[in-house]
Amino acid sequence: MTEEHSSPIKTPKQLIVVVLLAFAVPIALALLVSQLVTSGEHGTNDNDNLVLARIAPVGTVVLAEASGPKGLLTGEEVYGQVCKTCHEAGLAGAPKIGDKAAWATVVAQGEKLSFEHAINGIRAMPARGGNSDLTDDEVKRAVSFMMGKVGATWTSPAVAAASAVAAAPGAAAPAAVAAAPAAPAATMVAATPAAMVAATPAAVVAAAPAAAVAKPDGKKVYDGGCVACHGAGVAGAPKFGDKAQWAPRIMTGIDALYAASIKGKGVMPAKGGNPALSDADVKAAVDFMVAAAK
């Protein structure tokens, strides 16, 4: 005769205890493990420099400066960037470069007064030709350069030697950027060991998003040249911020404004007389002036 199977659970009370233990034991074990893992502070003995190195970004973006160090432009460079806009074509009564008769009055008044007029502005000519970033010395060099074209020999501050600039503290970084070959304006500088940087394929840099390249600053382009005519409405140029004057031009469409500004129209020379500007620079300046007139 076979023996009947018997269960260790004999009463309802024992069943309830077993069920409760089946839930309570796993939960208790989970809480103990969690407490063990999360107890105490981690990383309190880590070196701060090592921690910062671990969380540092992969790289940084270095944007090349649009111009050289302040105060180091020659008279010819300042003329090409600023003065040429009006003085090449003789706009708004500006004495045309090389015209001895037109410059006779300036020659007669002498260096000191002429320098003051160029720095502080006079009649239709804005202070510093409209470029407030120019130093007094750079403005004086530009005036002396133009005076030289009519046979006058005026003294002007000498440009600091390139070697002195290179030796100045903190000058190495801009020099390195300027010496770089024609590369994208934004270069990724890896914050990883030199060996890894050297091994990075050139294609990776070439494939950097176009958004990394800084968009031209329309206000800066305007201040650097356009203001000479548009600031006061010289020679029929629509005055900055004058909605009535800009309205018919805006109606022609932004593409027409771009084309006229880049190629020139009427008395306005191509690119405002500064061929060093890119098409993107000119368009940015147009956008800035149009936005101010809406």
Task: Describe the overall structure.
With 294 residues, this protein is mainly alpha-helical. The protein is built from 13 helices and two strands, in the order H-H-E-H-H-H-H-H-E-H-H-H-H-H-H. A two-stranded antiparallel ribbon has the order 1-2. Helix 3 (75-87) crosses helix 5 and helix 12 (254-263) packs across helix 13 (279-292). The longest helix is centred in the N-terminal third of the chain and has 27 residues, at 12-38. The radius of gyration is 35 Å and the shape is elongated. The relative contact order is 0.11.
Keywords:
single chain; 294 residues; mainly alpha; two-stranded antiparallel ribbon; 13 helices; 52% helix
Secondary structure topology:
Blueprint: H1 12-38, H2 48-55, E1 59-63, H3 75-87, H4 100-120, H5 136-148, H6 162-167, H7 172-179, E2 186-190, H8 194-198, H9 202-206, H10 218-230, H11 243-251, H12 254-263, H13 279-292
Helix pairs in contact: 3-5, 3-10, 4-5, 10-13, 12-13
Euclidean distance between termini CA atoms: 107 Å
Strand content: under 5%
Number of helices: 13
For the biggest sheet, the summary is: 2 strands, antiparallel
What's the SSE pattern? HHEHHHHHEHHHHHH
**Looking at the structure, what is the overall shape?**
elongated
Average pLDDT over all residues: 74
Low-confidence stretches: 162-208
Q: Helical content, roughly?
A: 40-55%
Number of strands: 2
* Alpha-beta content class: mainly alpha
Q: Return Rg in Å.
A: 35 Å
Strand arrangement, major sheet: 1-2
